[in-house]
Amino acid sequence: MTAISQRFEELRKSNTCALIPFITAGDPDLETTAKALKILDKNGASFIELGVPYSDPLADGPVIQAAATRALQNGTKLDDVLQMLKTLTPELQAPIILFTYYNPILNLGIKEFLKKVAEVGVKGLVVPDLPLEEAEKLIHSAQEFGIELTLLVAPTSSKDRISAIAKYSQGFIYLVSVTGVTGMRAGLESRVKDLLQEMRGITNKAIGLGFGISGAEQATQAKEWGADAVIVGSAFVKRLANGTPEEGLRSLEELCKQLKTAISSEQLTVAGK
């Protein structure tokens, strides 16, 4: 499976904005998660972010927190998630980016964790509670296993901090579109547009915009502002949780197609591309 940074280079050459859906592993069950990954892969996802359920998800809003709680109540464990991925990743075109908090990594041991996730085909890692000051060890260890660790930039970050994060972030840079936790919002903060342009002057790495994007209009806006990728989480998680698993999967597919259409229509020329 292609590396995250390599896939972004391919997308950039064709002036294509990437779609990165997020779902929570094990909600409502891992069988449905596997089906959802296949559906997203076939309907426009350039990458797929898979959340490992965690008991104290501080960066997540109520929708994803509730999904993590349900998954944990169902007995979903990291080993179960990885076993599911082991059989599935060879069938997927979209690289898998694992979203996990730092404590489970430390509990297992950094090298052991990375070895396990690399063996099942995971290509990227997002650790929302890992500060830049503590990231270097994990970044270097991840590179040994062919995994790229993506760091997050907050809308309140200073120029110096953005520069430091851009230097170390692998695969792409995850720009958080709002101050606070994940979740669906009516619109994007205007500050994000300026921040995207500011970041273009700092780095040529791909920039993915996430937190708060829930529909086609916001996704289109993010693309027009210059994002290399649109990351959508709560909207997918909410759809998958509504109704029966079959109804949730149909709704998930519908949203994926809508978002892909929205960001694929007449790609715009963006500064820095």
TrEMBL record:
Residues of the active site: 49, 60
Pathway membership: Amino-acid biosynthesis; L-tryptophan biosynthesis; L-tryptophan from chorismate: step 5/5
InterPro entries listed in its UniProt record: Aldolase_TIM (IPR013785), RibuloseP-bd_barrel (IPR011060), Trp_synthase_alpha_AS (IPR018204), Trp_synthase_suA (IPR002028)
EC code: 4.2.1.20
Secretion signal, residue range per the UniProt entry: none
Keywords: Amino-acid biosynthesis, Aromatic amino acid biosynthesis, Lyase, Tryptophan biosynthesis
Leading EC class: lyase
GO molecular function: tryptophan synthase activity
Superkingdom field: Bacteria
GO CC annotations, alphabetized: cytosol
Reactions listed under catalytic activity: (1S,2R)-1-C-(indol-3-yl)glycerol 3-phosphate + L-serine = D-glyceraldehyde 3-phosphate + L-tryptophan + H2O
PANTHER family: TRYPTOPHAN SYNTHASE ALPHA CHAIN, CHLOROPLASTIC, TRYPTOPHAN SYNTHASE, ALPHA CHAIN
Protein role: The alpha subunit is responsible for the aldol cleavage of indoleglycerol phosphate to indole and glyceraldehyde 3-phosphate.
Subunit-structure text: Tetramer of two alpha and two beta chains.
Protein family membership: Belongs to the TrpA family.
Protein name: Tryptophan synthase alpha chain
